[in-house]
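Supplementary Note 3. Input sequence used for the single-chain structure prediction.
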Amino acid sequence: MKKSLAKKIRRVIPYTPGEQPKKDNIIKLNTNENPYPPAPGVVDAIAGLEASPAKLRLYPNPDATPLKSALARHFGMGLVKDNFFTGVGSDDVLAMAFLTFFNSDNPVLFPDITYSFYEVWADLFDIKVKRKPLDENFRIDHKHYLKKKKLGGIVIANPNAPTGLAEPVEFIKEVALAHPECVVIVDEAYVDFGGESCVALVNELPNLLVVQTFSKSRSLAGLRIGYAIGNTELIKAMEDVRYSYNSYTMNLPAQAIGAAVLDDNRYFAETVEKIVETREDAKRRLAELGFTFPDSKTNFIFAKHKSKDAEYIFEELKKKNIYVRHFNGERVRDYLRITIGTPDQMEALYSALGLILR
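The predicted structure, written as discrete structure tokens, is reproduced below.
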């Protein structure tokens, strides 16, 4: 490639997603997917679409009205359709939020250990950032977020990834009140597994945007449905940016299936409860095997072994067709992020670890 051409190409270091092995008969505990199938209503919604395939020749509703209306009914709390923004997974929603709201010379604040896509979007969109370190226990140091300094925005994953720790709603409220000059984004991808949601605050705090996803607790990672909840002015601003970028981000099946899955709250609650029970048992079993970890409120555990190297354990598990996640960052390279699977999958993990660690 000619140098003159190369200079005109935007260069970024991309986000690295979890490995998606193509082999059969593996135990996949590396990408925080839900081990249980989605709600039974999803099958009916798919069948309805299959019965009328001619609909697929038409563009979907550009405003995703069926899904937004279902979300408004699901949450209640005085929220209406116009309090919701939808996108292709929460990654798409977060990217649109970064592009919409982080548009000043002041830096955007987020922790040094958090969802690594934040840094990628900041680089891609040329956004200044300020990273504040988590403390020695991987907790957010509240004083960094409550100081009266001019910021271009704040992003807090709550519960945080990959640590799994959750902050109280009162802290998020204090942050939003301390910084009325900027938008505070709360990424609640894992909130259903034990965190406290800030959704009830969005009409009270005009600068608060809450982002959630169907990928984790709703068992629909393959369908890619994410959404933001905020006051109508914030959502309108995001919609204006989206319509200037891509008018049809939500396809017809995603809108129909997403609305259908919200109707089965009983199945959702039962599935989440099973994962939480398995997670709490996993804490006991991993501790018996010599691991330490923060007190996860998510569907994964961020674990460090007292004597064995994390990368060694990671590679040995792969040899046994068990996939977990290992990061190479300076403060996290001694840790493995282990997704909570079914009880049978977790038993296979404990058996494999027992052999590796002996």
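The first strand starts at residue 27 and ends at 28. DSSP finds twelve helices and 13 strands in the chain.
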